[in-house]
Design brief:
Layout (H helix, E strand, L loop, with lengths): L2 H27 L34 H6 L7 H6 L17 H11 L8 H10 L6 E3 L8 E6 L11 H4 L9 H7 L7 H14 L6 E6 L2 H12 L3 E4 L4 E8 L4 E3 L4 E6 L7 E6 L2 E10 L4 E9 L10 H6 L7 E4 L5 E5 L8
Antiparallel strand pairs: 1-11, 2-5, 3-8, 4-12, 5-9, 6-9, 7-8, 7-12, 9-10, 10-11
Helix pairs in contact: 4-5
Bound molecules: 2-acetamido-2-deoxy-beta-D-glucopyranose (2 copies).
The site of one 2-acetamido-2-deoxy-beta-D-glucopyranose has 5 residues, from loops.
Keywords: Signal
Protein name: BURP domain-containing protein
Organism: Populus tomentosa (Chinese white poplar)
């Protein structure tokens, strides 16, 4: 190719690029929801957007805050999703239709020693996962053990709001009418019901030895966990995978100490996480190989002392045991687990 030809091509390229930028900027300025393309590798359907409520002069949160507090910890994939620029600014209305099984499992995890007396939960949990392993006992997993596992994800992706905006929106049971008004949601809608349930969960009293916090922004999520576990941490999540039979391929590996913060993504119009630090907890990594050859490193949490849990807890029903022994469970791929790093000396 001659030099002239190359230059012409290059020029054409830049012209096209600037045209593209001009178009997108114009679309942004007049507030048109333009089509966004998900990062190909992530392959996640973008949520339907509703009109934005956000001031246009406040920029979206980025991974900068993460690296300013946690310079040595890679940003977990589960959070990278929520920071995809294509998602901002958007408020998501599909949060209430979230993948039922994921939402139900999440709630099952959260109702640790509280009784999950919602019969619907049990029913949908059973029908969604008739033959899947969620709960297991401490010594159940050894290399060669086979089980069916479904690594769910919530199905909808929402974005973090800038902290400033998130903190200006009320987040408490007595302010639900205001919240509904803010998002233009009907009082009797399914969305309203979900919002009430989720906020209610945040306001329930802590269990013994538990500390919890509902983080309404990326910054508050990071602050909570850094205050509890310091800056020398690993943050893990399980990669989503299809439901199939998996075989434990190597020994289960304990990660960190008997201290962990677990943050579950909530069903909410923007990214809110229910984080808790639970005493007597062990985080394990379980290496699995699927029937189709897929390798998954599943993150699991073991509650080492369940003697104070309700005998009606789903875990005991599934395992057919009484409260007391260590109970472990798999985590869905939207859940973040923070553990102190113990392999390296603390950096000063
Ligand atoms: C629910 O999650 C599973 C596993 O991630 C996925 O295969 C399925 O399509 C989801 N369903 C909906 C309705 O999003
Ligand atoms: C387990 O928890 C119960 C009640 O919270 C407590 O009485 C007991 O001492 C604990 N057991 C161990 C081994 O820590």
């Amino acid at each position: 190719m001659s030099l002239a030809n190359s230059c012409a091509l290059l020029l054409l390229f830049f012209l096209t690029l600037s045209l593209f930028i001009t178009c997108s900027t114009a679309a942004n300025t007049i507030g048109v929801t333009h089509t966004t393309v998900a990062v190909a590798a992530d392959n996640v359907p973008l949520p339907k957007k509703v009109a934005t409520f956000l001031p246009s002069d406040i920029s979206p949160p980025t991974e900068k805050y993460w690296y300013s507090r946690l310079p040595n910890t890679p940003l977990p994939k589960a959070l990278r999703y929520l920071l995809q620029p294509g998602h901002y600014p958007s408020i998501n209305r599909e949060f209430a239709n979230e993948n039922v099984s994921a939402a139900v499992i999440l709630r099952a995890y959260r109702t640790t020693y509280r009784i999950s007396n919602k019969r619907d939960d049990k029913k949908s949990l059973n029908s969604a996962l008739p033959d899947s392993t969620i709960f297991y006992q401490y010594d159940d997993l050894h290399p060669g053990k086979k089980m069916k596992v479904l690594f769910t994800e919530s199905g909808t992706k929402v974005s973090f709001l800038p902290r400033q905006v998130a903190e200006s929106i009320p987040f408490s049971s007595d302010k639900v009418p205001e919240i509904l008004k803010y998002f233009k949601l009907e009082v009797n809608s399914k969305e309203a019901q979900v919002i009430r349930e989720e906020i209610g969960g945040c306001e329930e009293p802590n269990m013994e030895g538990e500390e919890k916090y509902c983080a309404t922004s990326l910054e508050s999520l990071i602050d909570f966990s850094v205050e509890r576990l310091g800056q020398n941490v690993r943050v893990l999540s399980t990669e989503a995978g299809k439901k199939q039979e998996y075989t434990v391929s190597a020994a289960v590996r304990m990660i960190g100490d008997h201290k962990a913060a677990v943050c579950h993504k909530m069903r909410y119009p923007y990214a809110v996480h229910y984080c808790h630090v639970i005493a007597d907890t062990e985080v394990d990594e379980v290496p699995l190989v699927g029937a189709d050859g897929t390798k998954v490193k599943a993150v699991t949490v073991c509650h080492l002392n369940t003697s104070a849990w309700s005998p009606d807890h789903m875990a005991f029903q599934v395992l057919k045991i009484k409260p007391g022994p260590a109970v472990c469970h798999f985590l869905d791929s939207d859940t973040l687990v923070w553990v102190p790093k113990k392999d390296k000396k603390m950096t000063p």
